[in-house]
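Dear colleagues,

I hope this message finds you well. In preparation for our joint manuscript, I am sending the Glycosyl transferase family 28 C-terminal domain-containing protein (Aeromonas simiae) sequence together with its predicted structure, so that both groups work from identical material. I would be grateful if you could confirm receipt.
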Amino acid sequence: MPPLWIFSEGDLARGLGHLSRCSAYAAAWRQQGGTVHWVVDGDELASTLLGEESVSWDNWQQQPISPQQAVAIVDSYSASLTTLESISAGFLRVLYLDDTDRLEYPKGLVIHASPGTPGNQSGIATWRWGPSWQPLRSPFWSVPTRTRVSARIERILLIMGGTDIHDLLPDLVTWLRRHHPDAELNVVNREPDSRLSECRQHHKLDAGLMVDLMCRCDLAISAAGQVTYELARCGLPGILIGVADNQARQLAGWCGPDTFISGGWWHDAALISRLEQGLATLAAPEERSRRAQGLQRLMTGNGTLEALSWLNQA
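The corresponding structure tokens are as follows:
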């Protein structure tokens, strides 16, 4: 089994979504007996997330990459086509993660997991489309169908990505405390925050604990980032908020009559009114049940293992 090299990026400003989803590939590759090395443009926060991983820290995205007898995964919004071509030419097989149809990719396999209508397959790479291809950590592979739906909204999950870059959680909690005082609020954040003292705060959850939390809650208010796929896999309906420009396709593709409800963008004046409307819609248990089924239907299969199986054919 060849070594796996992962080229990615992440920090406080850009978020940790790339590193988080690539960690699913890394863990699965090691479970199959392979070794993993990372090349990352990141900060101390990224270093904390990756822990004991083997990492070379480098601004690699505009540089030619030396050949290796290894396979590679590339997850970057800023890597140049020249850099990608050097990886494609110098590694045995290359998998690219794409959210925005960003480039005409060189030889390899492109995973575009965003829901919605497939775009143009540009470049010479082979493309795979749809949410079922999203890399998920192994505890999410066997989440059962959601069958229990409470008569009323008892537990709300709030998660604004790994860094809450716009500090939305305190205002959201204050608003929910006023309008839904009986609901238990579960907030996933990086570290304890005294402004959220009336909530259950959860920090540094591993994948198993995250599955348990998502399966316990009745709905979520979430950023429209990588966590969206985990919410869908657990059949947890909710309201998505766009917090970064690169989430536009996610917000559009994931929101519909049988999936999530759109709260719009974090800076929209109408955000609160959209949240009010969304919560009113999701108050009905049959509405939450129908949307839970629709979300889980989109996440069938195991794209994580299928992608790694392709890499391992090198």
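For the figure legend, we might mention the following. The domain at 155-298 is CATH 3.40.50.2000 (Rossmann fold). The radius of gyration is 19 Å.

With kind regards,
E.M.
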